[in-house]
Amino acid sequence: MKKATSLIWICLIAVSAYAVLLSPVTQSSVDSSKDKQLTTDLNTEEAPVAIRDNTGKIWVFFVSYRSGGNPSAIWYETSDDNGKRWSIPYLLTTSIYPGGPISTCGISVMQDSTGKFWLVISMNKTPGGGDAEMWFMTSDDGGNTWSDPKKPYEGTAPWPGYGSPTIVEAFGKVWIFFTHYEPEGFKYVCSDDGGLTWSSPADLPAGGLVGSPHCMRDIGGNIWLFYIRQPGWYTEYARNISCMMSSDGVTWSSPINIEEMGPGQENYPWGIQDSSGRIVVFFDNFPSSTSDIFYVVSDNNGIVWSEPKRFTEDPSQDWDATAVTTDNGLLVLWVSNRSGNWDIWYRYFTIGANVDIDPDTLNLKSKGELISAYIELPEGYNVADINVSTVTLNDTVSAELKPTDIGDYDNDTVPDLMVKFDRAKVIRYILNSVDIEERFMKVTLTITGKLNDGTPFKGSDTIKIIMPAHKWA
């Protein structure tokens, strides 16, 4: 292929009103053969969080019992090739408190705009719990060495402690949101000097009894906070995934539910903006003795959300998902006991495809021949699994169902699928959608589609266009 797909962030605009599309959960078939196991230790691994650093390396931090049974130990693995191969596990830190084991109540990680790594940990001080304190550690050398743990507040956390931290950089500050059940809602602290000083813990009302927060920042700089919400105590089977958004960290949109699946315990939402600019929120649903990962999507800045769709389907328990962008698409990791042990598993959500569109130069007055697109998928995926009826160009022009062909158009030993598009429809789309300022220009065309199991893919190619001389004159 002429070029690899690059991931482009699309700016999200703050909105003041939302609507929710609520429908029964989509029971699509899920191909579990693509699920891969990351950790294989016989001790429990849980609470994964993932980031991609400014060099392209993927980091997955998780809680492990492998350190002498200590459930406070934080380990991590890394990948330099978009998740194809992983490092051996490395131990980052054991219990902060002497004489562990003490349970961990949540971890969160990020890399800020200066390149500094931040890791936030919540840990109980005693086995009985209810006394969790929150700590943060930083690394200024790409994760090679870490600072000693410090608390981002003075004194001791009040009962029942501070838990489920989530960290984000926005509006020139580092923000940590966390749970504390008196009053209902969240608390937060922030720092504008690299963690040297912090604001006092402040309340953030969130519309009821809430938990499991996860925050993300969109490319426009807005903070999105996703969390579980239920109407009161002992109503966990009536909980939903909710969200709020702020464009300044001071004022917040009203809380809304972004899914309502019916009876079941929704947990651990994780929101992320994918390469197309969509917001995707993963969460687990626990209706009875098993649980699976589901997701909802908004293509319009949170105004409307899709019905919940299934991401995993296994008779075991899958829960606590995290996601990270890679050159090959959106990589999702989660906890599962399908191996007979609690481990970290992963699979791509959106596949980054390599696309080559032919011709390389398109005369907008030309007629007749179909336009070809050659699609390659990353290792582990088969172009024969592409559902041609789902393939579109710029979400507007559908691929012709015939002819298609599987070959190696660019002779790089990687199979590609050839699909065809109606030339007149493509030209009409370009004339209607592209602001043509010169007779000779370049335009980027994007091919999207799905595999037979529903897995989406996306890839782009840039071609030259020639405007007819008499129209340009």
Radius of gyration: 24 Å
Beta-strand proportion: over 45%
Whole-number total of structural domains: 2
Mean residue pLDDT: 85
The chain-level structural class is mainly beta
Second-tier CATH architecture of the largest domain: 6 Propeller
Biggest beta sheet summary = 9 strands, mixed
CATH class of the largest domain: Mainly Beta
Helix content: under 10%
Count of discrete alpha- or pi-helical segments spanning 4 or more residues:
2
The tally of beta strands, per DSSP, is 32
CATH topology name of the largest domain, in short, is Neuraminidase
Shape summary: globular
The low-pLDDT segments are: 1-29
Q: What is the first-to-last residue Cα distance?
A: 36 Å
Characterise this structure:
- It contains two helices and 32 strands.
- The chain has helices spanning 423-433, 469-472; strands at 36-37, 45-52, 58-64, 73-79, 90-93, 104-111, 117-123, 133-139, 163-170, 173-179, 186-191, 202-204, 209-217, 223-230, 240-246, 256-259, 265-273, 279-286, 292-298, 309-310, 318-326, 329-336, 343-352, 354-358, 361-363, 371-376, 386-393, 397-398, 400-407, 416-421, 440-451, 456-466.
- The strands form seven sheets. Strands 1, 21, 22, 23, 25, 27, 28, 31 and 32 form a nine-stranded mixed beta sheet that branches. A four-stranded antiparallel beta sheet has the order 2-3-4-5, with no helix packed on it.
- It is mainly beta.
- The chain has two domains: 32-350, Neuraminidase; 354-472, Immunoglobulin-like (Sandwich), CATH 2.60.40.
- Residues 1-29 have low confidence and may be disordered.
